[in-house]
Design brief:
The protein is an alpha+beta fold. The chain is 32% helix and 26% strand. One of its GO terms (molecular function) is catalytic activity.
Length: 109
């Protein structure tokens, strides 16, 4: 029997250019609900820190689900132009979730 993949978490900090902060906020906010409806998305949260940085926290069922998400045209349009929107590079981390995700196939493994 094959063990199902453990969920993958992604968390990232994005510092928008001051003149583009409202636009970045609008774009990132527009991603929330559609992403939550995607197959394989377990969590998707957007936060705004008091210093103006945005913080994304995502949990995906698998790397394949995240790859499919990242290939969507509206997301590619944003990701392909990140330097125009951000001061510096995003600070991002990908990790395998060790604690079982409630209700996932990985729970109990």
């Amino acid at each position: 029997m094959t063990t199902p993949p453990k969920p993958l978490s992604l968390y990232a900090f994005l510092r928008p250019r001051p003149e583009r902060a409202d636009e970045v906020r609008r774009i990132l906010t527009s991603f929330v609900e559609p992403t939550r409806q995607e197959e394989g998305n377990l969590q998707y949260h957007l936060h705004e820190h008091e210093d103006g940085r945005f913080f994304l926290y995502e949990v995906w069922r698998s790397q394949e689900d995240l790859d499919r998400h990242n290939a969507l045209p509206h997301l590619r349009a944003f990701l392909d132009h990140l330097p125009e929107y951000l001061e510096g590079s995003p600070e991002g981390y990908f990790d395998t979730m060790l604690s079982p995700y409630p209700g996932s196939a990985a729970e109990g493994s």
